[in-house]
Design goal:
By secondary structure, the chain is of the alpha+beta class. It has 2 domains: 3-86, no CATH class; 161-537, Cytochrome p450 (Orthogonal Bundle), CATH 1.10.630.10. Helix content is 57%, strand content 7%. The protein has 22 helices and 11 strands. It has helices at residues 3-22, 31-52, 57-86, 96-100, 103-108, 114-125, 143-148, 176-187, 192-216, 223-240, 246-249, 254-269, 273-281, 286-308, 315-326, 333-364, 366-377, 385-389, 392-404, 438-441, 485-500, 514-518; strands at residues 128-132, 135-138, 221-222, 414-415, 421-423, 426-428, 433-435, 503-507, 521-523, 525-527, 532-537. It has a 4-stranded mixed β-sheet with strand order 1-2-7-4. A hairpin with a 1-residue loop joins strand 9 (521-523) and strand 10 (525-527). Helix 2 (31-52) packs across helix 3, helix 9 runs antiparallel to helix 10 (223-240) and helix 12 (254-269) packs across helix 14 (286-308). The radius of gyration is 26 Å and the shape is globular.
């Protein structure tokens, strides 16, 4: 076969591979294998050229490079033509490069500002934006209940939830029946009785946090660090019946750094789960190594909890007990590891971030600080969680912070059923990835009056300011909603009440809180920027 014929075969193979193979099904779990196959193919073609065409090594390598380049060029050309001209989403508006590849999205998200990027796209293109070859980002107010609510809701979790395979816990099950079965096990850890025992632990660690602040006196203190210490320690108690002693040692546990570094990988690369899989399976770069270290550490915490076999009714107790009763403790090992990862990240990072945003807004709006202090002064026993649950301004503040700063600003993707679905008045074809960014939805003027302003009263006295409550779903909705919602709310209420009733809080000298918003990062979960505060005991 002459060389031109070889190039023709290579080009035709590229087009055929796209149209007969890669255009069908999911390939993210095979990304590393495909890379290895590509390298092996290059070597095989070079060997063929040397052995059967009589070329020198250098010439064989050059010929192999040209043949493989032709194959890839035709493969990608076929993809580009299909995605821009023939794809079922071709009629939806969006950036031209987004129609071709999600790598465009990755390049725009390297600064972890996806929440702001999507907000700009909404202003430019409207409520339905094509943000990927097979992805729509929808900003219509009623999108969240459409894709999340209902026992027979046909929307499913897409490929992104496979990113940490084989560590698949409650939060990333894609199989609905498996998720429902696993959720029933988790439910035992969130009964009324279980929540009461966790509330006692919240009190213990909140008082430790208050002692740290008291010992610091009227000197500036990092709110980010303090709230990380608290949330990580209390998470350890909830999850594994152990403290990680951040508050005692007054320094960040190494695992917190691993969380932040590991999450910095998931943020920019969320649009391309196949790239996350390559990083996960080949931890060469620093972020990928830290993600592996984090997963290993989380797994070790679960292994240690199984070995300790303590009687404390923490969340892990119910998970381990469920597997032990079924006689599948060994088989469920990676599931338990996945649950450990979910508890550690969701149970610590999100609480700390929300508390930072909450105190930033309270200090920025001292009138709400004073109003809350007055409410707490006359509330009775502010260490009674039932009392706190009924305080209108406290709960208004918490809700307003969750609206302005959702813990998951743009994540929580869903996939339409094979037959497609009607979403907010428009038909969306089947197997389309749907992004419904809470950060933008909760700041829509059509849903909230004065949407970017901090107005806690909108949740109890000025309810007309909530124009469409469907845009507010900080803990998600439906079968995949956050199982720890009531526990998280209890933490937020108690810590806020404990500190606000005792202290007047202000910005540290030279601080105005601008970094909280300005440096906010969307790394699947939200990470606010730096905040330094001064706590002075009330007179």
């Amino acid at each position: 076969m002459n060389f031109k014929a070889e190039l023709l075969v290579a080009g035709a193979s590229g087009v055929l591979c796209h149209n007969l193979v890669f255009i069908h099904g999911e390939w993210h779990m095979h990304a590393t294998s495909l890379l290895k196959l590509s390298a092996a193919s290059f070597a095989a073609v070079a060997a063929f050229e040397a052995a059967y065409q009589g070329l020198s090594l250098a010439s064989a390598l050059a010929a192999s490079g040209e043949i493989c380049s032709t194959y890839l060029s035709c493969l990608f050309a076929s993809m580009v033509i299909y995605r821009t001209v023939f794809h079922r989403l071709r009629h939806f508006p969006g950036p031209a490069l987004a129609k071709v590849s999600k790598l465009w999205h990755v390049a725009r998200c390297l600064d972890s500002k996806n929440h702001l990027l999507l907000e700009r796209l909404h202003r430019e293109y409207g409520d339905f934006v094509r943000t990927g070859p097979n992805e729509l980002t929808i900003f219509a107010p009623n999108v969240l209940p459409t894709i999340l609510e209902g026992p027979s809701n046909p929307f499913s979790k897409p490929a992104w939830y496979d990113s940490l395979q084989p560590y698949i816990g409650l939060t990333n099950h894609r199989n609905r029946k498996v998720h429902e079965r696993h959720r029933r096990v988790w439910d035992h850890g969130f009964t009324t009785q279980a929540l009461q025992s966790y509330q006692a632990q919240i009190k213990v660690y909140a008082r430790q946090l208050e002692r740290v602040i008291a010992d610091n006196g009227p000197k500036p203190i990092s709110a980010n660090e303090c709230f990380c210490w608290f949330s990580f320690d209390v998470m350890g108690q909830f999850a594994f019946s152990k403290s990680f002693n951040n508050l005692r040692d007054r320094k960040l546990h190494d695992a917190i750094r691993m969380i932040h570094s590991g999450m910095s990988l998931t943020g920019p690369f969320t649009p391309v789960p196949w790239l996350i899989r390559i990083g996960f399976e080949n931890p060469i770069a620093g972020m990928a190594r830290d993600l592996h270290r984090l997963l290993k550490w989380c797994s070790e915490q679960m292994d240690e909890r199984i070995e300790r076999n303590v009687d404390n009714l923490d969340i892990s107790h119910y998970l381990i007990q469920g597997s032990a009763k079924r006689g599948t403790l060994h088989e469920d090992q990676t599931t338990l590891y996945g649950d450990a990862i979910g508890m550690i990240v969701a149970g610590s990072d999100t609480t700390a971030s929300t508390l930072v945003s909450l105190f930033y807004r309270l200090v920025q709006h001292p009138e709400h600080m004073r109003k809350l202090q007055e409410e707490l002064d006359t509330a009775g026993d502010v260490e009674d969680f039932t009392v706190l649950q009924k305080l209108p301004h406290l709960n208004g503040i918490v809700n307003e912070i969750l609206r302005l700063y959702p813990a998951v600003p743009t994540g929580g993707l869903r996939e339409t059923p094979p037959g497609g679905a009607n979403i907010c008045g428009r038909f969306v074809p089947g197997n389309t990835i749907i992004c419904a960014p809470r950060y933008t939805l909760s700041r829509l003027d059509s849903c909230f009056e004065r949407p970017t302003e901090f107005v806690p009263e909108r949740w109890y006295r000025r309810t007309e300011m909530v124009r469409n409550k469907n845009a507010f779903a900080p803990f998600s909705l439906g079968r995949y909603n956050c199982i720890g919602k009531n526990l998280a709310l209890a933490e937020l209420r108690f810590v806020t009440a404990l500190l606000v009733i005792k202290y007047d809080v202000s910005f540290a000298e030279g601080e105005d809180g601008k970094f909280v918003d300005g440096d906010l990062m969307d790394q699947f979960t939200a990470t606010p920027g730096r905040l330094r505060l001064v706590f002075r005991e009330r007179k």
